[in-house]
Amino acid sequence: MGTLDDEREHVERCRAGLRRMLEGARNNVILGETVAGDRYSAERLGRQLKSLAKELKELTEEPEGPPFFGRLDFGQGSAEHRGRSYHIGRRHISGEHGGPPVVIDWRAPVSRAFYRAGPRDPQGVAVRRRFGWSGTLLTSYEDERLEQGEQGESRILAAEIERPRVGPMRDIVATIQPEQDDLVRADLNASICVQGAPGTGKTAVGLHRAAYLLYAHRRRLERSGVLVLGPNRAFIGYISAVLPALGEVDVEQTTLERLLATVPVTAADSEATAIVKHDARMAEVLRRAVYGRISKPVEPVVVADGSSRWRVQEDELRRIVDDTRRESLPYGVGRERVRARVVASIRRQAEARGQTANAAWLRRIGRAVTPALDAVWPPVKPEELLYDLLRGPTPATTTSEERGGRDPAKGVLTDTERAAITWLQPPRSVKSASWTPADLVLLDEIAAMIERPRGYGHVIVDEAQDLSPMECRAVARRSEHGSLTVLGDLAQGTTPWAATSWKERMALLGKPDGEVIALTTGYRVPAAVVELANTLLGALRVDVPATRSYRSDGRLRLTRVTNLETGVVAAAREALGFEGSIGVIAADAAVEALTSALWNDGLDLAGRLSVLPASLAKGLEYDHVIVAEPAAIAAAERRGLNRLYVALTRAVSRLDVVHARPLPAPLTRPEHTA
Ligand SMILES: Nc1ncnc2c1ncn2[C@@H]1O[C@H](COP(=O)(O)OP(=O)(O)OP(=O)(O)O)[C@@H](O)[C@H]1O
């Protein structure tokens, strides 16, 4: 079994193993540079080896990088691993002289038992050992003799979960819980939706699932890619270090707005306008607008070719256009298909006259039919099309009607909705148009009708309850041939179009059969704080399962003050006496005044204390949270109570609620609070 000294010796073996791997990688890089046959393979090999060397270098230099966090000793009952023991860590470390590895990757099949085995189902594990570290120094370990039915409360586990938070989010590989592990290792082909109350580890699960899938299906996913979508840049900044720490640097992590940003966003919509633009019916409006550009041919195609003149008669052209339309191709592909068919018709005529059609001739004829093609199946640019739509309906003359000039929104949107998306003062040209975030989603819908966008092998969407139906379509297009992990909490929905049912959202996301699974144990928020936040749940009118907090520690304090700013400054001063990050969360409109008050009191807002608007708090966490004036947060927007629910559930250790006005009605002070 070994003592702490034996385990420390193993740490040394790991360090030696890492040094060997690093050295080997360096040599391979050098060899790759000199040995590889041609320049291309030398470069490719060199690149691969350099990235390996870089990764290993990072690993050895990582100040907080214990080489392992757990160990499994299999008993005699295990068929596959009888009598063997394995150390489990963030990355595989190979043994000496090609011997067995000294550390097994947490994602390897054998490591699964570390997360899943229990006294009721030991999975062949005699002893599960967890290690405690202080930086890079191994300080302790705890054993659970699973075959003897032992499973105690783990102090190491509790300490990890309750540790004060500072800086960006960290990985949880050492302490993934069985219900989380189920989701992390779910099959790549399975699209799943995780409904979880605040702090149940949805984001952590999503990120670890990305790392797991890349390990288990590296080839497939390296080609097709993995995409992680979060609600805003602050959130992406907060989570972006987790995957690189797990050795995965090639996952694209961004916001949907950034992913769709083909034009700069320089304007904002009113809520009424945004609601219409985000409605699923806009897809039909845009489809009509795009395909309305196709017109019935009214004249033959005539192409001059030296002394010859080729002709494709009007009825043949009509047939070509109709047949192509029926094929439901992307608009741009359809246009090229019509061109190819017209050229093929001319080619047949030329060959019938004994002319040979070489590649240069075909290219020339292809170019020459462009004006005729433009008349029946014109090129469409997303911005131009949206510009035309947002300018409002054009008068319906016969020709404009045939050319798609009639209003594509007619019969789909009501007159009021049509008016809501029509510019009051239309810009003079497409170039001078100012686009809004909702316009990006519409432009993406149009662009995808013209040409299908790049898809990913797996897409992970966080805070998915806030996606609009049109945004869901944008995500669905990118995961059409891959799978999805959808993470969210119906109770935290703050957009006007927020989801009220996951079944319906999964259908909009293109995965109607995706399983919806609930996570019900909270690891962030202490029990007393959960109790307070839960008093709001009834008023949020969503059907979500109850949660229990893993944590009995923590502190909740509600303080009524006469002056909000003075009260917040006092709370912040006191909070600075504790370790960890401090977030002051206030209604967006109050942020400036509170920032000045804290600043004027000499508090440093560039360090571990920060003030943030309630609208940006989603997905983040602070060790100590001060929620300033809940009534103002609740009153600031239509789903203000949901916003308040988000704000109240950001605290890891302590929550101070500071209020000068009465608490908003549904929020009730739990009986035993200060
Ligand atoms: N198994 C675990 N071991 C240790 N810490 C955990 C575990 N699961 C979750 N946590 C921690 O709990 C906190 C909340 O996790 P996370 O942000 O993933 O939750 P969430 O469900 O996405 O929350 P929210 O809905 O509020 O955004 C994080 O600090 C995370 O590291």
UniProtKB/TrEMBL annotation:
- By its UniProt entry, which PROSITE patterns does this protein fall under? UVRD_HELICASE_ATP_BIND
Its Gene Ontology cellular component terms are: cytosol
| SUPFAM superfamilies assigned to the protein according to its UniProt record, in alphabetical order | P-loop containing nucleoside triphosphate hydrolases
Q: Which UniProt keywords apply?
A: ATP-binding, Helicase, Hydrolase, Nucleotide-binding
Which GO MF term does the entry hold, naming one?
3'-5' DNA helicase activity
Specify the UvrD-like helicase ATP-binding domain's residue ranges.
Answer: 175-526
List of residues binding ATP: 196-203
Q: Which Pfam families match?
A: UvrD_C_2
Annotated GO biological processes are: recombinational repair
- Name of the protein described by the UniProt record: DNA helicase IV
Please name the source species.
Nonomuraea polychroma
